[in-house]
């Protein structure tokens, strides 16, 4: 069966699965799937992917079946990333694989868990969910007889690490995002084994996944916040972009019931951002005229992104959500409790690693605190919200209800 079976319209600057830079551990090609399809399938079947179902996006896991989890968010990002990649002539399967894997390194309890674990790990290099996702797919998943991790292609690993842009500049110095603390150790450690080109942008498919993440966040956090009663529709008019969309809905369907207004608003947010990303991507691609995927990587700025006006709208939405949702009193109260759960678990496991299952504490050197801390962080980061609470109840006399 030839590679042509997998071909669809693909621009010269798209990642070509037939010309992949390969896997760390060479494997025979598949007669039925492209290399990027295989990556996508391995991610979907990973244990860490299944756990996303029970990891919080913003609300805790038991607050309601209709709020987003990491898994539903990931599926929404995947759909948007594929739409962007298809329109721009990029490889849809690679864009989907990157969208499906981008949150594999997240802790229980949303960003609260990450912040708490980062502080616990501060003496040992900190904790970064992108770096943790890389550890998951290159080390922590243990499914194959020949290697640890999922043995994904170079293109998928590169996009996973660099979807938000270069990590170092041409001189090897950390970019702005990592200037204060340096590039996370797990990324540098893996990069020493397989060079991911940390000083360049990722390919176009990873850039699609990155803006798809922003689009999904903006749309579904507004939806979740409205349904949770954290703010009302009229409050959204403080954001001009959202006010315009609400006016469109009111003009076409006067008196439309609230639940349908919320759905219409979400649809319009996604549509406007996707169409803007496609138009701006097309404009930048035309100006750059990249002959291949590497030309996108070498470009001085991102190629798939929003126009300045839509980037402003994105910032305005996030500026609204931060105080009205992420820092709403009811959410902060739960975040405070969740923060303590993670800190308690880290402290107890670090002091006595034998409290973790055998495979997590075996082989640890009591004198190697950094390795012990990283092992504890790996264990906690892999927990679902419910399992973290179960472990806390096992080890402590009182566990917060997270309500």
From TrEMBL:
Transmembrane stretches, by residue range?
none
Region (Disordered) spans which residues? 19-38
Segments forming domain HD: 70-218
The cross-references to PROSITE patterns, in alphabetical order and at most eight, read:
HD
UniProt keywords, alphabetically: Hydrolase
Q: Which Gene3D superfamilies match?
A: Hypothetical protein af1432
Q: Which GO terms describe its biological process?
A: dGTP catabolic process
Q: Which Pfam families does the protein's record reference?
A: HD, HD_assoc
Instruction: Write one Gene Ontology MF term.
Output: dGTPase activity
The cross-references to HAMAP family, in alphabetical order and at most eight, read: dGTPase_type2 (MF_01212)
Q: Which family does it belong to?
A: Belongs to the dGTPase family. Type 2 subfamily.
Query: Per its record, how is this protein called by name?
Result: Deoxyguanosinetriphosphate triphosphohydrolase-like protein
Q: Organism source for this protein?
A: Alsobacter soli
The organism's taxonomy opens as:
Bacteria, Pseudomonadati, Pseudomonadota, Alphaproteobacteria, Hyphomicrobiales
């Amino acid at each position: 069966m030839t590679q042509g079976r997998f071909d669809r319209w693909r621009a010269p600057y798209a990642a070509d699965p037939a010309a992949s830079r390969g896997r760390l551990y060479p494997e025979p090609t598949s007669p039925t799937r492209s290399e990027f399809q295989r990556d996508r399938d391995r991610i979907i079947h990973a244990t860490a992917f299944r756990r996303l179902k029970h990891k919080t996006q913003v609300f805790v896991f038991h607050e309601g079946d209709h709020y987003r989890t990491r898994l539903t968010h990931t599926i929404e990002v995947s759909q948007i990333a594929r739409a962007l990649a298809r329109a721009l002539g990029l490889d849809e399967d690679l864009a989907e694989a990157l969208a499906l894997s981008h949150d594999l390194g997240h802790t229980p309890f949303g960003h609260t868990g990450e912040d708490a674990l980062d502080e616990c790990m501060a003496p040992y290099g900190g904790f970064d969910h992108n770096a943790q996702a890389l550890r998951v797919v290159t080390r922590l998943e243990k499914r194959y007889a020949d290697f640890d991790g999922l043995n994904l292609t170079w293109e998928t690993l590169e996009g996973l690490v660099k979807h938000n842009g270069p990590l170092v500049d041409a001189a090897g110095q950390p970019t702005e995002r990592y200037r204060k603390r340096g590039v996370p150790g797990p990324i540098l450690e893996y990069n020493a084994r397989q060079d991911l080109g940390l000083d360049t942008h990722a390919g176009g498919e990873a850039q699609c996944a990155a803006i798809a993440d922003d689009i999904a966040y903006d749309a579904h956090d507004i939806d979740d916040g409205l349904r949770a009663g954290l703010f009302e529709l009229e409050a959204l008019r403080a954001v001009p972009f959202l006010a315009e969309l609400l006016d469109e809905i009111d003009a076409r369907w006067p008196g439309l019931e609230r639940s349908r207004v919320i759905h219409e608003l979400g649809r319009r947010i996604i549509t406007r951002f996707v169409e803007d990303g496609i138009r701006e991507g097309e404009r930048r691609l035309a100006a750059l005229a990249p002959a291949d995927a590497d030309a996108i990587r070498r470009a001085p700025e991102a190629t798939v992104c929003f126009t300045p006006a839509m980037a402003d709208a994105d910032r305005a939405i996030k500026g609204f959500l931060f105080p009205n949702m992420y820092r709403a009193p009811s959410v902060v109260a739960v975040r405070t409790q969740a923060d303590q759960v993670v800190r308690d678990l880290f402290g107890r496991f670090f002091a006595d690693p034998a409290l973790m299952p055998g495979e997590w504490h075996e082989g640890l050197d009591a004198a190697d605190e950094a390795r012990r801390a990283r092992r504890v962080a790996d264990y906690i980061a892999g927990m679902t919200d419910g399992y973290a609470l179960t472990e806390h109840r096992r080890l402590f006399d009182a566990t917060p209800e997270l309500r």
